[in-house]
Structure formats: C-alpha cells, structure tokens
Amino acid sequence: MVAEHDVVLADFHADWCGPCRMLDPVVETLAAEPVATVTKVDVDADQQLAQSYGVRGVPTLVLFTDGEQAEEVVGMQGEERLRSQIERYAEW
User: Fold this and answer.
1) Which residue in 12, 16, 19, 22 is deepest, having the highest Cβ count within 10 Å?
2) Average model confidence (pLDDT) for the chain?
3) How many domains does the chain have?
4) Which helix (H) or strand (E) is 61 found in, with range?
5) Which domain covers residue 81, as residue numbers?
6) DSSP for 7-40?
7) pLDDT of residue 2
8) pLDDT tens sequence across 12-35
9) Pair 70, 2: CB distance under 8 Å
10) Is the previous residue joined to 59 through a cis bond, with omega within 30 degrees of 0?
C-alpha cells in the first residue's frame, strides 16, 4: 500500500491503548482529506509489521512519502501538527 500512494500516514495502534482511542478522531479527520492516504495497523494483530518498523510504543504514527519512511512520531499528537507534517510532503 505504501508504494501505491504519494503520502501515507500509518497509525500503529492497539485497542487497549487509551491515547490511541483519543487519537482516533484526529486520524479519522485526516483520512477524510485527500492530502494523504491513512492506514491503521493494529500492533497486536500485525506484530511482525510493527516490529519491522521498530514500533515500541503506541500510538506511533509513521509518515511515508514515495514509498519511503519520512517521519515517525510517538504518542498523542494534535491535528494541526499532523496536518502540517503531512502537508510538507504532499505535492499540490
């Protein structure tokens, strides 16, 4: 999926994670916008993928551009900060 889109935001999360649930509305808002493709990865269901990206805590948000990992942020993030990071890589 990452290679198929210009900008992808991967949300590594877990159902039992409180901050992940708090971040859900922010991620859903960003997913509704055309700037980036958003995907959610449940670290419990896909441990191997999470491990391959070095995810040690949740929530972890990994931003990919042109198929390559560009940025990673861990913990609760505000919508404006995430939007700003995504827009740095989006081609208008």
Assistant:
1) 12
2) 92
3) 1
4) strand 60-65
5) 2-89
6) EEEEEEE-TT-HHHHHHHHHHHHHHTSTTSEEEE
7) 63
8) 999 999 999 999 999 999 999 888
9) no
10) yes
90, containing H or E segment: none
Q: At what angle do helices 79-89 and 18-31 cross, to 10 degrees?
A: 50
> What residues of the chain score a pLDDT lower than 70?
1-5, 91-92
Q: How far apart are CA 19 and CA 28, in angstroms?
A: 14
User: Catalytic residues, which ones?
Assistant: 17, 20
21, 86 contact by CB (below 8 A):
no
Give me the CATH number covering residue 21: 3.40.30.10
What is the token pair recorded at 38?
């958003």
Amino acid identity at 63: L
Query: Residue 12 phi/psi, 5° resolution?
Result: -85, 115
